[in-house]
Amino acid sequence: MSDTVTAPAPARTRAAHTTARGRMAALARAELTLFVRTKSTLVSAVFVPLALPLSVHSVTDRMKLADAGLTAGLVVLPAAVGFSLLFAVYSTLVGVFVARREQLVLKRLRTGEARDAEILAGAAVPAVVTGLAQSLILAAACTALLDLPAPHAPQLAVAGLLLGLALAVALAAVTSGLTRTAESAQVTAIPLVLVSMLGSGVMVPLELLPDTAARICELLPLTPVITLVRGGWTGELSGPEALRALAVALAWTAAAVFAVRRWFRWDPRC
Amino acid sequence: MNIDEHDHAIEVTDLRRVYGGGFEAVRGVSFHVKHGEVFALLGTNGAGKTSTVELLEGLAAPASGRVRVLGHDPFTERAAVRPRTGVMLQEGGFPSELTVAETARMWAGCVSGARPPRDVLALVGLERRTEVRVKQLSGGERRRLDLALALLGDPEVLFLDEPTTGLDAEGRRETWQLVGALRDAGTTVLLTTHYLEEAEGLADRLAILHEGRIAAAGTPAEVTAAQPSRISFELPEGYFLGDLPPLAELGVCGHETAGRVVRLRTRALQRTATELLLWARHAGVELNGLDARSASLEEAFLGIAREAAASGAQTPGSQPRTKEHAA
Question: What are phi and psi of A172, to 5 degrees?
């Protein structure tokens, strides 16, 4: 087979390489278009988290809030952030990750220059932006309508919100690995949503739970996020309490990121 | 001859791939593709073509063995390889709710030195379909969109996994012309196909995969030359196979009969044909349906399937698609 002369590599002038930011912007733009075009996602991600805090507000007068040093605003606001993280970010993204995987979009993207983390982050942008915007709008609404004072330790609230967003994205990626089809994503997302609503201080503040229950619930993934947001407003979170909450949130995020790197499925499940 | 591996765009050494259930899809495959060469991996469904190509694309790590694309490991050195390769998967991979233009724009944002999307879409004849959603495209149009995006970055190495499956005859011919033009421009192309004429017409060299192993490799001419030629005819009324001269003396290396039809395989077509015809003249008989032909790639392919069947390993539904079936 020495009759074939090896051709020299074609001389090509390579234009500037893409950047991580440029790649993610391109992916995020496409995802944003898809987000707007998928009506069911739009409803569950945008309107559900805006409507749910109303239902919490309607039951706050039956809670013995004053005993725990809380006001309606201090219950509704963290609840609103929790709903936003659970519905706009977590549940939405489980569906998005599964849908992209089953359409082979993730696999196709992995043949290109975008790195794995960029692909997932790009896909997560619309949901994260929605969650962030909702949290800010709801905080403003609670302040205006429920006489919520300005936060005493805003840095805690901000840290809680940002950790919550990162955690919701990572947990959605983990859950997608356990989900067969885009339809079943609505089912596989339920356990974390329910557990968080009941045990993480979203619907019922942990202060109103029995001690032992509260102690266990503090270890749930979303609890530190809610604790930090509420503590940011009350300013009553002690240093060690705040550090403990941050540590739990970081530990969950690290565990979720590890699980994603290890078990995330890029190929369709068959 | 001592070959510097950088002479080769793709180097594959003793590659193995084992899936989760323990199924070994690729069982020790070795080959190389030179710069600027079109190399075809040919095989029946389930032969391991896609499993092999995915390892070359760097989508998965091999169980063992070595892959080098442009001198790098495509799995562990992704950042070094990806800007220089283009990939067309066997199937889709685009969100159904985006339009053609939106899909191309998204992809262009992830490709270094991307050409204007409009240019590559025109190259595959999709310039009038840019505002159509991907879900409304025909299967053939989707394949062409996929090909267009694989070409966006002017890749040095192009992987095409069954690029013409689902295309009509014209679309297939257009894709072949495009691949020919890419080769002329110096692009290295590795394609998989189960269309024999596609491999025969496009590939400088090819390998036939069977059950995860390379059953034959070389230029199309070399692969077919390794196969015996065929002669078939009807035995005249009243004659039996034993009435022919001893087959070994005719240079026959194998034979089959079906009713009165006899099929002989030979590596010395001229000699066998001459001896057979001399016998017929001598006996004063007419050989109806006489047909003598050199081996084709199709024959090579069928020969490999036949050998597999003889070893009891043939799987149903793995007949190769020939010209007649493919058209």
Answer: -65, -40
Task: Provide the ipTM.
Answer: 0.86
**Among residues 258-317 of chain B, which lie with CB inside 8 Å of chain A?**
none
Could you give the CA distance from residue A176 to residue A173 in angstroms, rounded to a whole number? 5
Q: Residue B96: its chain A contacts at CB < 8 A?
A: 103
Phi, psi torsion values for B12, nearest 5 degrees: -125, 125
Q: Tell me the pLDDT tens digit for each residue of A190-234.
A: 999 999 988 888 888 887 888 888 888 989 999 999 999 999 998
CB contact under 8 A, A16 and B89: no
- Which of A17, A18, A31 to mutate to test binding with chain B, by most B CBs within 10 Å of its CB? A18
Would the CB atoms of B1 and A2 count as touching at under 8 Å? Answer: yes
Q: Of A12, A18, A29, which is closest to B154 when you measure between CB atoms? A: A12
Contact (CB<8Å) A6/B83: no
- Residue B277's pLDDT is what? 94
Alpha carbons within 13 angstroms on the beta-carbon side of residue B37 total 22
Residue B54 CA, chain-centre distance (Å), reads 15
Residue A258 pLDDT > 90: yes
| Contact check, Cβ <8 Å, B113/A14 | yes
Which residue in chain B has the smallest CA separation from A30?
B106
A220 backbone dihedrals φ, ψ, rounded to 5°: -70, 155
The torsion angles phi and psi of A36, rounded to 5 degrees, stand at -70, -30
Give residues 99 to 118 of A whose Cβ lies within 8 Å of B.
100, 103-105, 107-115
Rounded distance between C-alpha atoms, residue A249 and residue A163, angstroms = 7
The DSSP string of A160-199 is HHHHHHHHHHHHHHHHHHT--STTTHHHHTHHHHHHHHHH
Residue A108 has which token pair?
Answer: 């196709």
Which residue in B has a C-alpha nearest to residue A28's C-alpha? B106
202-221 in chain A: CB under 8 A from chain B: none
What residues does B10 pair with on adjacent strands? B33, B69
**What average pLDDT does range A169-188 have in this prediction?**
93
What is the model's pLDDT at position A21? Answer: 92
Q: What is the pLDDT of residues B294-303, one digit of tens each?
A: 888 887 887 7
B142-157 pLDDT per residue, tens:
999 999 999 999 999 9
User: Which pLDDT value is given to residue A149?
Assistant: 84
* Chain segment B256-291, per-residue pLDDT in tens: 888 899 999 998 999 999 999 999 999 999 999 999
DSSP-derived secondary structure letter, B159: E
